[in-house]
Design goal:
about 110 residues; mainly alpha; about 55% helix
């Protein structure tokens, strides 16, 4: 009989096997980078990734998963999705408004209590 955690692991693996190989690699790198970044940096990074996906930086086919296997997706392909494209007239860099210091201080004060 499988334990609850074993069932979760089996379900997670099954889900990953049915997912886009490109999205798996993009997500893994994004999570790894995001662990060391502030929310502002994460939002800008995610915006950049989405722009690349919609522009077809890796593939123009969002439904037929090209490349179809993890091993066919190079680190260079993934790396390109994390860079802002200067000189591309169809793409504006995400500009987030600055947060007032009062809000920042309240957040930092709340986090220090945790």
């Amino acid at each position: 009989m499988e334990s609850k955690s074993e069932k979760w692991i089996i379900s997670a693996i099954k889900s990953m096997k049915s997912a886009s190989p490109t999205s798996l690699k993009l997500t893994l790198r994004s999570i790894r980078e995001g662990r060391m970044q502030e929310l502002r940096q994460c939002i800008i990074r995610e915006y950049t990734i989405v722009c690349h996906v919609l522009q077809g930086t890796i593939s123009n086919d969002l439904y037929e998963w090209e490349p179809a296997k993890l091993e066919l997706i190079s680190e260079d392909m993934i790396h390109r999705c994390f860079k802002f494209e200067h000189g591309n007239d169809d793409w504006e860099h995400l500009q987030l408004p600055a947060r007032p210091n009062k809000i920042k201080n309240n957040i930092m004060h709340s986090e220090s209590k945790l």
